[in-house]
Design a protein that fits this description.
This protein has one domain: Alpha-Beta Barrel (TIM Barrel). The protein is built from ten helices and eight strands. Helix 2 packs across helix 3, helix 3 runs parallel beside helix 4 and helix 9 packs parallel to helix 10. The site of ligand 7PM has 18 residues, from strand 5.
Length: 278
């Protein structure tokens, strides 16, 4: 089913669970371990009620290393096939490389999640020749240098202008607005203050007429306030998720699926009564 349809049918934002395929310090990075760990993560998230998963084969963390397309393909393709074989869950692929987009679209993934908003040469054409949904995210600079000196005249206006421009470019290429999801890109070339300005005015992005995605799970904008390591930022992340839910987010990208769904169910129950008493 289309993500757009899932959004329309849901009375709370969809929860997108983050599944990383990047080798980390907790495993030897071996192919089997990576796949097995991804499948375990997906199973747990489904038990918790996740609406879709976001699979990433290249870390986009500040200062992260570049991953060749060949290596990203080796990580992502077997994972998609294994997830498809074992589970029935919409899949989003976190990639900015057009050759990866092409391959995963052929495998029938529901969404491309692009932190570069289809700016890589060829990416627009790949999406234009498909009917796959796509998330366009704002980033200032690139993942290696973006946190060195983020600068805006007005972060809200600048991010709005950027996303509006990417939207126009997509539409001119024949990518219909109805399959585009927009994301201001918390943490991507933004200071703590910029991030909280975006959070405070998240609802202004509704004016662009697309569904909205918010990704702030465990990010440093939360660490800056609670002074805790990423894994200890669950409560802070829930606070961020609730703020976004109250300000028009349609998809929330998270590590902690079960806790986020609980938090969003409370928002949903409140909004239901609010609507009933209008
Ligand atoms: C710093 C920045 C640390 C980003 C970690 C990350 C987003 C995304 C990521 C997001 C969309 C993370 C990331 N963040 N895709 N991919 N929106 N659409 O938290 O905010 O995993 S990477």
């Amino acid at each position: 089913m289309k993500i757009k349809t899932l959004i329309e049918q849901s009375s709370r934002p969809l929860v997108m669970g983050i599944v990383n395929l990047t080798p980390d310090s907790f495993s030897d990075g071996g192919q089997f371990n990576q796949l097995d760990s991804a499948l375990n993560q997906v199973e747990k998230m489904l038990e918790a009620g996740v609406d879709m998963i976001d699979l990433g084969g290249e870390s986009t963390r500040p200062g992260a290393e570049y991953v060749e397309a060949e290596e990203e393909r080796r990580r992502v393709i077997p994972a998609i096939k294994a997830i498809r074989k074992h589970f029935d869950v919409p899949i989003s692929i976190d990639t900015y490389k057009p050759e990866i987009m092409q391959d995963v679209i052929e495998l029938g993934v529901e969404m491309i999640n692009d932190i570069r908003a289809l700016e890589m040469p060829g990416a627009l054409d790949v999406l234009a020749q498909s009917d796959t949904e796509v998330c366009l995210m704002h980033m200032q600079g690139n993942p290696v240098t973006m946190q060195l000196a983020p600068k805006y005249d007005n972060v809200i206006e600048n991010v709005l202008d950027y996303l509006n421009n990417r939207l126009q470019v997509c539409e001119s290429k024949g990518i219909d607005k109805s399959r585009i999801i927009l994301d201001p890109g918390f943490g991507f070339g933004k200071t703590v203050e910029h991030n909280y300005q975006l959070l405070a005015e998240f609802n202004r992005f509704k004016a662009l007429g697309c569904s909205l995605l918010a990704g702030l799970s465990r990010k440093s904008m939360l660490g800056a306030v609670v002074d805790k390591a990423p894994a200890e930022r669950v409560a802070a992340s829930l606070s961020g998720a609730v703020i976004c839910a109250l300000n028009g987010a349609d998809i929330i990208r998270v590590h902690d699926v079960a806790q986020t769904i609980d938090a969003l169910k409370v928002v949903e129950a409140m909004l239901k009564e609010k609507k009933n008493n209008e």
